[in-house]
Amino acid sequence: MELDTEDLAARITRGERRALARAITLVESGRADHRAEAADLLAALPQDRQALRIGLSGTPGVGKSTFIESFGMMLIGKGLKVAVLAVDPSSTRSGGSILGDKTRMDQLSRERDAFIRPSPSQTHLGGVARRTREAVRLCEAAGFDVVLIETVGVGQSETVVAEMSDLFLLLLAPAGGDELQGVKRGIMEMADIILVNKADGDLKAAATRTCADYAGALRLLRKRPQDPDGFPTAMTVSALEVSGLETAWERMNALADWRRAEGFWDRTRAAQARYWFLEDVKQRLLAQLDSATAKADLQALSDAVASGEADPSVAAQEFLAGLKRV
Ligand code: GDP
Fold first, then answer.
1. 23 alpha carbon to ligand 1 midpoint, in Å?
2. Which of 12, 85, 148, 308 is found 20 to 30 A from 69 (Cα to Cα)?
3. Domains of the chain with CATH codes
């Protein structure tokens, strides 16, 4: 059946969930005809709708899904529409997905104003990233006010999520001792707000201590131009007892408002668009290298170089000129 992209775009814009789900399935497809339809669809969407894109990272067990459930329900209570997407690097290995799973956000997944989508599975992070980024655009077009993009704290995927977010949250659990929990400096540097979760019951004192440790560590980081005084910041929350979430939301809005007023919001989104454009070019070039013709050409030319028939840089030039014709 031929897809009517104009019609699908109109239905997404009206906020029809089934149309949104279908569109996300379309952008997740690797088929060439689907890619072309997805490009038409993205071009047909309104450009003027912006959600607050919030990246959220944390190692398994810190309470990401509990936080998203409580935080999402709070936002819905304020009349906001909330979408939850995930970038799950492990799904690239297992073929399944562990994040954004509906059963993990039981209450939220039953809300009319919530939309939860698990991570697309793919062979490489670049593919997951592109699909999630396009899903973010679709959710914005569908009128969602807040898009939460969740990932696990294992490295590369944080960069990917930070590059598609307006705000980046790092969720931590209270530490037993006084040492920082081996959070990589690079990840700390990405965080706008560190949330030390589980600040309740027996864990409350440890959470307060951990929070103070991280607040101290944040003060040692180089000041970034996109931060007003007082940011990045660390605070305690309890996703389970739903405490500290209002304050966290206030802090997020204070930061977002300041960045909008100072021009950082638009500048960051523009820089992100450039980043994704270059990433897309790289992905496409890599995909071309993977084609049967390219592989055969590479083999033939590398044989010619090895036997001394061709000079390496002349052969490289010849190879690239051949790629352009594809
Ligand atoms: P995720 O793997 O990061 O998504 O973590 P989950 O949300 O699945 O939570 C892992 C465990 O920590 C579960 O047993 C939760 O009930 C528990 N947990 C999550 N948030 C809190 C909290 O605020 N306080 C306490 N005490 N436990 C929590």
1. 32
2. 12
3. 1-46 (1.20.5.170), 49-262 (3.40.50.300), 289-325 (no CATH)
Q: Which residue CA neighbors atom 26 of ligand 1 most closely?
A: 198
Nearest C-alpha neighbor of 21 from the set 90, 109, 105: 109
Is the shortest distance between the CB of 151 and ligand 1 below 6 Å?
no
In 215-277 the beta strands, taken as DSSP E runs, fall at 233-236
DSSP 4-42: -HHHHHHHHHTT-HHHHHHHHHHHH---HHHHHHHHHHH
User: Ligand 1 centroid to 240 CA: how many Å?
Assistant: 7
pLDDT grade for 95, boundaries at 50, 70 and 90: very low
Q: Check pocket membership of 113 for ligand 1, CB cut-off 6 A.
A: no
Q: Please state, in angstroms and rounded to a whole number, the distance separating the CA atoms of residues 158 and 190.
A: 8
Radius of gyration of the chain (CA): 22
Residue 86 parent element (H or E)? strand 82-87
- For a pocket test of ligand 1, which of 57, 62, 66 has the largest count of ligand atoms closer than 8 A to its C-beta? 66
pLDDT in tens, 13-50: 999 999 999 999 999 888 889 989 999 999 999 888 89
Q: Is the dihedral of CA 6, 12, 14, 16 positive or negative?
A: positive
Q: How far is the C-alpha of 221 from the C-alpha of 13, rounded, in Å?
A: 42
- Using an 8 Å Cβ cutoff, are 138 and 72 in contact? no
Q: What is the pTM of this model?
A: 0.89
